[in-house]
Amino acid sequence: MHYVSTRGKAPILDFSGVLLEGLANDGGLYIPEAWPQLSDSGTGDYLKTAVETMSLFLGSSISSEAFEEIVKEAYSSFRDEEITPLVDMGKDLYLLELFHGPTLAFKDVALQLVGKLFDHELKKQGKRITIVGATSGDTGSAAIEACRDKENIEMVILHPAGRVSEIQRRQMTTVKAENIHNVAIQGTFDDCQDLVKAMFADHDFRNRMQLSAINSINWARVMAQIVYFVVAAERLGGRKSPIAFSVPTGNFGNVFSGYAAHMSGVNITQLVVGSNKNDILTQFFNTGTMQINEVTPTTSPSMDIQISSNLERLLFELLNRDGQKVDKMLKEFRERKTISIDPDIRETLSNQWIGACFTDDEVKRCISEEADNSGIVLDPHSAIGVLAARECRKDKSIPMVALATAHPAKFPDAVEDATGIRPELPAHLADLLDRPEQYTQQPNDLATVQKYIEEVVG
Ligand SMILES: *Cc1c(COP(=O)(O)O)cnc(C)c1O
């Protein structure tokens, strides 16, 4: 299995290379040279499907015995034996619960695995790396939980100061491990992400620090997320039976994994992209044009994003895998703050993709009504998935799966505001509010943050 960059100029790598590299050195994202094809049937067993699906993308990078062991260990930290259980909401609408991992958000599904893959690969190669990541809240804690105390990894996580919830911050800053460094940046999530991108673009710094990424720009995360789209299809009629998904979207990693599952043989008829007030993706899917605006804080902070990195992977596909075109288009986007795709491309896109956005009030009403009607307690992100599923569904005879990306207790204020009941944290996090925190504050300034990283990584 070979991987190419969406900007067409970086070296072609195998899976191990892509795992450790993160962002391609031409500024692009890695993607398989060709989509591998799944067999027609599967059992619905998470671990079996995980091994089968991901092996297609690993090539010969990791032995199959070692990989099976890694998969088994990664998902032993999940509190539900089905790993990602499906809940029937009636009328052929299902909720796919992705929040049963250690940090209560769907990011654990990928990161529990990716942390172990990093460890395996670094030990094999006798290397050390520095993982630098930007988080809008949930990636940080999931990455920290996946990499704490790993001796070959130093980890620096940037989060936007004051723009992540207290629970989210504490899940990052209360982890006691020498290799973990939390930084609150005076800026937005996009500022944090730009800082990370700029550090990768600084080749001297990148080489000196042996930088690597664990953001959803890392292909390995997209790969790990493909699995639950396949498993959900298996549990609802089979890989070849039509199915639709609705995905509360921020950086576009999760929903792109759905597209990858489709390209690898799952019969996904519809991909619904749900957003909050930061509706740049809704504009894109419904008009073919997107325009960057200021980020507006909402009750679904993990989706408070304007520039969705993983959209680049879809653009690459839409532009017939022409890296030069992608490069030109994205440079233009940065300069002019707006881009449009050709009407005929938009036409093709609209056969499968659709976007919908919702206000905090609509989200609140959805959480409240769902709790009253079915007793299901949604977090604000998952509520957007459910709202978008109901609004955009094309064919009522095809099962629609809304992805539940966070446990309600991760966003207790919004959930309490909607239902009147404060959701309780699961037992392993019950004393989170009493644990001591540790983090530093830094300005939104590249040189200052780089200097800090050189100091702590040494
Ligand atoms: C990260 C996150 C999202 C957005 O997922 P992307 O892959 O970035 O699109 C949605 N909901 C929750 C709870 C998240 O943590």
Show the helix and strand layout:
Elements: E1 3-5, H1 15-21, E2 30-32, H2 46-58, H3 64-75, E3 86-88, E4 93-97, H4 107-125, E5 129-134, H5 138-147, E6 153-160, H6 166-173, E7 180-186, H7 189-201, H8 203-209, E8 211-212, H9 219-235, E9 243-248, H10 253-263, E10 268-275, H11 280-287, E11 289-291, H12 311-318, H13 323-336, E12 338-340, H14 343-349, E13 353-357, H15 360-374, H16 380-392, E14 400-404, H17 412-419, E15 440-443, H18 446-457
Helix pairs in contact: 2-3, 2-9, 3-4, 4-5, 4-9, 5-6, 9-10, 15-16, 15-17
The protein binds pyridoxal-5'-phosphate.
Could you write a compact summary of the structure shown?
The chain is of the alpha/beta class. The chain has helices at residues 15-21, 46-58, 64-75, 107-125, 138-147, 166-173, 189-201, 203-209, 219-235, 253-263, 280-287, 311-318, 323-336, 343-349, 360-374, 380-392, 412-419, 446-457, and strands at residues 3-5, 30-32, 86-88, 93-97, 129-134, 153-160, 180-186, 211-212, 243-248, 268-275, 289-291, 338-340, 353-357, 400-404, 440-443.
What do these coordinates show?
- The protein is an alpha/beta fold and 458 residues long.
- It has 18 helices and 15 strands.
- The strands form 4 sheets. It has a 6-stranded mixed β-sheet, sandwiched between helices. A 5-stranded parallel β-sheet has the order 8-5-6-7-15, with helices on both faces.
- A hairpin with a 4-residue loop joins strand 3 and strand 4 (93-97).
- 53% of the residues are buried.
- Bound molecules: pyridoxal-5'-phosphate.
- Pyridoxal-5'-phosphate (PLP) binds at residues 105, 107, 138, 216, 248-254, 302-303, 381, 405-406.
